[in-house]
Amino acid sequence: MTTRALIALFILSAAPGATAQEWFTTADGVRLPTPAIGGLDCQTKRAVLDAIDASGYRAGAPIPRHAADEPLLDYEHQLSRAFYADCVRAATTAAGLENAFRGGYEGD
């Protein structure tokens, strides 16, 4: 597991009030954090994605090796979409708009 993934596991396991619903155990026995996506900041989203990826539950394939891991795949997709929308696209869009209008009133 990567350092970032281990840090995510440590932070999330120490979180007060963590429930069994915030964890998923893969068919291979790897316990992973699956916190509610809405309350996560970009750093935590990335760390949880790293932890899921480091588990190897899909072994690089587009689908999990075990059907029992399908709920984790669904969670991973939702988290990936949220990470992209909130942390990648939002940052890129803001920078792009700023550059698009730079000098716009100066006759450029």
Attribute tags:
single chain, 108 residues, two-stranded antiparallel ribbon, 3 helices, elongated
Short structural description:
The protein is mostly helical and 108 residues long. It has helices spanning 3-14, 42-55, 70-100; strands spanning 23-25, 31-33.
What does this structure look like?
It is elongated and about 55 Å long. β1 (23-25) and β2 form a beta hairpin. 53% of the residues lie in helices and 6% in strands. The termini are far apart. With 108 residues, it is mostly helical. Strands 1-2 form a two-stranded antiparallel sheet. The relative contact order is 0.14.
Could you give the topology of this structure?
Elements: H1 3-14, E1 23-25, E2 31-33, H2 42-55, H3 70-100
Antiparallel strand pairs: 1-2
Helix pairs in contact: 1-2, 2-3
Structural class: mainly alpha
Largest beta sheet: what is the strand line-up?
1-2
Helicity level:
40-55%
pLDDT below 50 for ≥5 consecutive residues: which ranges?
A: 14-19
Q: Give the terminus-to-terminus CA distance.
A: 51 Å
Number of H/I helices:
3
* Strand content bin: 5-15%
In N-to-C order, the SSE pattern is HEEHH
Rg calculated over all Cα atoms: 18 Å
Outline, from the CA principal axes? Answer: elongated
Mean pLDDT: 80
Strand count, sense and closure of the main sheet? 2 strands, antiparallel
Number of DSSP-assigned strands = 2
